[in-house]
Automatic annotation (TrEMBL):
GO terms for molecular function: acyltransferase activity, transferring groups other than amino-acyl groups. This is GNAT family N-acetyltransferase. Transmembrane segments: none annotated. InterPro entries: Acyl_CoA_acyltransferase (IPR016181), GNAT_dom (IPR000182).
Amino acid sequence: MTMELIRPSAKYSEQLMEYRAAFLHVGEQPYGGTSLQNYADFNEWLAKVINQENGDKLPSNRVPATQFLTVIDGKLVGLINIRHRLTPELLMESGHIGYSIHPEERQKGYATEQLRLSLQEAKKIGLKKVLVTCDKTNIASAKTIQKVGGILENELITSDGKEIVQRYWIEL
């Protein structure tokens, strides 16, 4: 098994749309997917990914970010999005890195390796310390973040008051 982070391309369009459908089917959103849940068309989503990386036409609450697909032997198993900097909102709730693993591929250790690889990519874009967050109820994600060196700074209530977010810092 060789896991790699690759850039989105048409080669993975069908798998990406299937990934989206799997999350919608279980009533979740694919974190780390540049709002993939809102795009039924791969090319429209890819255009957003490219614009976000280039910093083109970004709303005030968005920052430049790099999107990766997590692939094992040609199969899409996860998504990673690395934000190049933080806004005050991202500093409180979302952090530098968003990620997800396909619902059918969970509990196989993929998230830990995926996050470890994303830290290498974050370092390449010049980040020295990254913030990774998760909902307090997401114990699997908290364990994943801790396995790659995440140190819990604190817990905050989300702006909508519905969740408690754990904020972990990782030194690169």
